[in-house]
Structure prediction request, 283 residues.
Amino acid sequence: MKIQKVGVIGCGLMGSGIAQTCAQAGYTTIVREISQPLLDKGTTRIYGAWEKMASKEKITKAQLTENRDRLHGTLNIEDLADCDIVIEAVLENMEEKLRLFPALDHILKPEALLLTNTSSLNITQMGAVTRRADKICGLHFFNPAPVMKLVEVVKTISTSEETIETVKQFAVSLGKTPVLAKDTAGFIVNFLLIPYLLAAIRMLENGAATREDIDTAMKLGCGYPMGPFTLLDYVGLDTTLWAAEAIYEEYKDPLYAPSPLLRRMVQSGQYGRKSGKGFYDYK
Ligand SMILES: NC(=O)c1ccc[n+]([C@@H]2O[C@H](COP(=O)([O-])OP(=O)(O)OC[C@H]3O[C@@H](n4cnc5c(N)ncnc54)[C@H](O)[C@@H]3O)[C@@H](O)[C@H]2O)c1
Prediction:
């Protein structure tokens, strides 16, 4: 299957990064938002990223113009009708995704693939509300999407081998390295990362060491680019809590049970960098 046109649903943090990545890889890209101010905010972020790349001579002025010409914003979901691949990146809410998937299934041409960027929700269930479960899989990008090399390609029990092959090739064409995971909570990265992050929070709660010393220990002792608390603040404590809850829900394994401190920090709006305060202060 030749992919020429890509649709992205949602132009928030991840959707804008995914749309930017697709357009700069040469695909005609159409991104859909629910309101003009949100669409403008997302596309302005993308144009800003390209202007910065041009000013640092990472792309030429001509490439900047070509990228802009390939990117289109819309509020109308019907405008995605002739896309070959659509990547859903709306908020992490199953009800919203289960509303969206049948609507997209109805609009898209029969051969189009429908992918989700979900971090933790059940993709098999999303496929089951469409008539194209074999053409549905996960394509899980990491933040920031234009920079991070990894994508997890997530196969449900209904996804066809042909879909997986096409999506892997598509990921490579975006400059990414795909890894294949089954549709089980946490896929690969979060399944391994979440228990580590939760263990660091438990150490802090128990007074075993300070957050600074835990961060320094993991950076210098393991060669990690950042320690667990810096990483938690970067990923978002709310996002981490949702991911932990989703994996705990599936396996009921105490390794994934969110600690009281994490829950209380999220309840008090301490989400990390994005809210100005998490384990560290960013104000
Ligand atoms: N934030 C991360 O680090 C991260 C990493 C990987 C995957 N994800 C996943 O990506 C998805 C999006 O997360 P995000 O952090 O970008 O959220 P976000 O809140 O920044 O963006 C979501 C956007 O979707 C828009 N939206 C909602 N319903 C819509 C609809 N029906 N049509 C079009 N747009 C709609 C919202 O207006 C919002 O702008 C989630 O499934 C999340 O789990 C997030």
About this structure: The mean pLDDT is 97. The domain at 5-182 is CATH 3.40.50.720 (Rossmann fold). The chain has two domains: 5-182, 190-275.
